[in-house]
Amino acid sequence: MRTFKTTARGSARDLAKDSTRDSARDTSNTGTKDTSKARGERAEARALAYLQGQGLALVVRNYRCKGGELDLVMRAPDGTLVFVEVRSRSSDAFGGALASITTTKRQRILQAANHYLATLDHAPRCRLDVVAIGPRRLEWLRDAFGAGEPE
Fold first, then answer.
1. For residue 51, what are the domain limits?
2. Has residue 7 been placed in a domain?
3. Closest alpha carbon to 14 in 104, 99, 115
4. pLDDT per residue over 103-123, tens digit each?
């Protein structure tokens, strides 16, 4: 059965840590709050629309298990199962969206991917992608952790 290594290789962009947290802020004169959860849901919706436009089909959204969560599970046109982590930052300070993926976060994503794969009768070809949304662009990194090789 295909599994992902929980010690995925990292690069400088993956290892930079962003310890800042988005705080709730007013978005209109009505005083409604734009929470980090709401911003995250909008980012996931934007990433989903983008990936569907690229030919991927949604399988599961927000798959949760003990120890981790997968933002999107998609199927590529060639049948590859694609686990997608969506990261969004309103600023490129501290390295932006990509830099916010810490070693611990990578391990949680890999754990959730392995959990999801364990629920399948047979594990298809798969990879882990990241969609990083910044103030000026959306970036899609295929096989972002380099963990797509079987153990």
1. 33-141
2. no
3. 99
4. 888 889 999 999 999 999 998
